[in-house]
User: Fold these one by one.
Assistant:
Number 1:
Amino acid sequence: MADDRVEPRSETAMPRRIDFTRRAARATLVASIAAIAVAYGSAFTPGGAPAWAPWLLAVGVPATLVAVMILGAARGHSGIGRLKIPFAFVFIVLASGFCLALALPGNEGPASQLWLGLPARAAFVIYGIGLLPILVLPVAYALTFDSQTLGASDIEKVRALSRQNVSGSP
Amino acid sequence: MQTALPHVAHPVVIGVGLAYFAVIIGISVWASRRTKTASDFFVAGHGIGLIALTVASVSTAVSGFAFIGGPGLMYNVGLGAMFIVLPAAVTNVMGAWVLAKRLRLLGEARGLLTVPDAIGARYKSPAAQGMAGVAILVGIVGYMATNALAMGVVINAIFGVGIGWGIWLGMGVTLAYSVGGGILAGIYNDVFQGTLMALASTMVFLFVLGAGGGLGSLSQTILADDPQFLAPWGKLTPLAALSFFFVFAMGSLGQPQGVHKYYMLRDPLQLKWYPLLKTLGLILVLLLYFSVGIGVKAFVLSGRMAPLGAPDQATPALLLSVTPIFLAALVFSGVAAATMSAANSFINIGAAVVMHDLPVAFGKRLSNELRWGRAATLVIAIAAALLAQLSGAMVAFLGIFGWGLFASTLVPALAVGLNWEGATRAGAIASIGVGLAVTLSLETAAYFKAFSFPAGVTASAVALVLSFLTFFAVSWLTRRTAEAAIDPDVRLIMEL
């Protein structure tokens, strides 16, 4: 395969402003992946996964997903703006859905009260985790698209740089 | 889905099946006349509209598993099987935020054709591009072989021609439109196939709820005899169910058949509505997964259906014993559509790896990419059909690691790498290598029973986690090289 040459870092590069949003998202991503790794690692111990292992996933998995979404949604150094609210909502819905399913007593039976046709814990999972995010996330994406994601001027900037690259190439 | 489907061979099913194939052939002939360049062949000339791309994307996101294997799994393990499809509530919009804009703009700036192209551009590394290409090719072998076998099983169920002939018939039709019309034929066939799948799924959902007296009535029947079925994790452990959610949610960012579609959208500003439309489409297609799983369980427990010989018979048994024959015909064609749509997408991506990414990794460029692309398409399809026919039970093993392999090899380098300037090419190469090695070695060891995982842990999940940790650790260790290894246009796209 072709050689991967490492280019030295420019000595004259301007110091870059610290991007706290991305930094926090990366730290959360690393921490939550590490938590998931610990949960899996604990399953290899004698006696199998301890009782706390699923709790690490119940919190770690939503944290991982929201962290990676924040990394993707952060724009320049302006952070994620109004998207804080839907991201917080989705983390709470997913984490509380998983945690409720773990915490509530498993007493499903013929006498169980049904919520929209399902026993309570199943309803939290199917309607909470499976449906609630749909009502919020794609709508938030569309409503903030022009300001937070992509505008015509962004595309023009990319096209201009692309034209510049083509005309500057030998 | 293996070989469990019964032979239907009913005139209505055969008639609907023939009509389905006639439409596929018509679309393919039309598309092949419009395919003139490699860009047309692999990314539809970056010219697909929002609705067509959305429906096509839904169609390739689900394979025959959503219609046969998934409902069967749910019949077997209860609600725990839903953790495979529940991530659909977040994955489409997550993909849009993390990848869609950046990949579409990279396509705009660089004229990229493939997912490994983006990795090569991000890290200025032909080696990383080549390794990503190899990982995709290995995953595609498994996916293609399982889809080829699934086609054989479904076509045999409809026409009664035998599984061997079914494989070649299905692959022949898929191949004809893949070679002739490339991704353009694939996209418009996907639009037709996705519409058919959504229609069939919605009708089955409504029929099952109607026949069972509503979801509450179905639940009460199940709760009387098998309450654990409706526990939130079903008969799985919480760790196993949550692992499904993790691998299928995070892993979605590395599935080339979905990610590749971002290059094709005509106007990048149309991305605004893409996640909403795709999520709604996916929910429609997945209604069958939920309703058949829960409906068949209730019907069997109440004595309305005979107990199943194998979980994979859940959908066909319901269709043949409870639903009207026309609905059964529609769903059987929908299953054929799902497998052919997935196979076409993988053939196209595999051909692009062979004729584009691997030559680039070795510093070469083929002179006529369109001709070589068509040749590679032919070879991959024939190889997959042969593998499906000759490898027997091994084909199931090949299919298992497809999703996990794409996830562990591509997600850190692609999804995180395009959003973090601190990621380095050494980190990307190391994580792709670790993902490939760990997935292949653990899945192989588990398949041959040389090693067994503790309850709730899967090779895919372990490989994904290790790949992430490797990516972060190696990027941190080589962080001095990070800033300088990004071209200005790529940096601009990452900052937007």
Note: Chain B has 19 helices and no strands.
Number 2:
Amino acid sequence: MNMPLVKAEPTPVMPAPTAKVLPLEPKRNALATRLATRVRDVAIRVVPPIVVITVTLLVWELLCRRAGSTLPPPSRVLDDTWELIVDPFFDRGGLDKGLFWHLSASLQRVASGYLLASLVGVALGTLVGQSTWAMRGLDPIFQVLRTVPPLAWLPLSLAAFRNGQPSAIFVIFITAIWPIIINTAVGIRNIPQDYHNVARVLRLNHFEFFWKIMVPSAAPYIFTGLRIGIGLSWLAIVAAEMLIGGVGIGFFIWDAWNSSHISEIILALLYVGLIGFVLDRIVAGIATLVTHGTAAN
Amino acid sequence: MMAYLKLDHIDKTFTRGALETEVLKDITLGIEKGEFVSIIGHSGCGKTTLLNIVAGLTRATIGGVLLEEREVDEPGPDRAVVFQNHSLLPWLTVYDNVRLAVDKVFSATKSRVERRAWTMHNLELVQMAYAKDKRPAEISGGMKQRAGLARALAMEPKVLLLDEPFGALDALTRAHLQDSVMAIHQKLRNTVLMITHDVDEAVLLSDRIVMMTNGPAARIGEVLDVPLARPRRRLDVASSPTYLKCRQRVLEFLYERHRFIEAA
């Protein structure tokens, strides 16, 4: 507005300052302070786990050092498995391979089963989320089947496939698929009415609605399902491989048990845990990338 | 001659099981091309339902809506809506939100370069060009409504529908946006139907104010012409006798004759 509303009042004359004015001292060494805070931030995150791990190892060492203890202390684990740790790539033919080969065989099975479960799971979840009829028909079946423990599927899949490899992949598939289906369906169902209205005003067709509204809107839910799925897959693979045999970390653990190499079992467990953690972080990272950080972490 | 947009004897009854609620009763209203019409009424009187019927998002039980003498019974970009809660897609930037509409509406008639220019033109119209790469979560409520307005304007609608577009904003932001809407209306001469519950907003912006009685079975109680010359300026208008008289009329209607009786 151009018109002045209120006449500007004459500025009052400032009284001379009576107190002595001290200039602020310039901040001392801003870089050093920032570095110190950074170091402290890192320390806050790193120190507690180190302390806890050290204490745990110490207690374990003390407990298992006594003569006649059934499990080896950490020092002996390291000693026994040093060869496996430093050379994970050896291959003496047959099942006598380095840990890298066992883990990579397991990862390949998980990758196949999990990818299949992702594709089928998202597709079925979309169907169930979108069509009330499909939900009424399929949801009871899903709710019953998802409670079946992964290994219970193994004999049936062995009977069907008559081969260890596809059976293991099927067990991964059937384990990972339920949370993917259910979360995708919830995500599709929870698309806000506003987005439907926007789509209707714009007259988006089904194809456009699917790619431009449905997928991005449900993505946070879908990725929650995918994360639970990858965790379950990795849980199931060890058990499945113990039963089907062949190269794989599950078989490696079972074989070590049969040969009473307890230290090797402990090393394998450590690797299984670390890889499970990395898999989870990878899926979470993809989720953040795809959903621009809107997915729950 | 028939009105540009005609609401013809609209009744709306919601049915849930055996329970029937009559929301709107016999709403008839003609709006001329380029006119700015507000619908005002207490909350719950069915204003938004009426707007949704015009938008095509809800079907009228009886009666219908005619735009340029043709019946409209489904949503379309010729009746673009600015939603109460902005309804921007959170995974798209401001630019992409508007561009989505532009791409859809002008896919056949404009080239890529033209569509880009048109998107930017509309963002400039609502003074949002500087924030085009921000996502809805990163901007304020007022900016979101501006982006929503840009998206609606970019569809080049025959009728622009505003559903309490400034309801959730603070008074200062609301005033800024009202000024923007007035300036845009002045420039484009578009036909606007706005839902509001703010008396000053209705008087300041509208050529006519449609006052609705309380529900259930709300109807049009009164239609008031606002004979204020355009362009209107908030401060000049606020003290004009015509403005005060119109404001008085609406207030009397809302707070004396059709006082809102809240459920106990």
Note: The interface with chain B takes residues 1, 3, 5, 194-195, 197-198, 200-204, 208, 212-213, 216-217, 219, 291-292, 294 of chain A (CB under 8 Å).
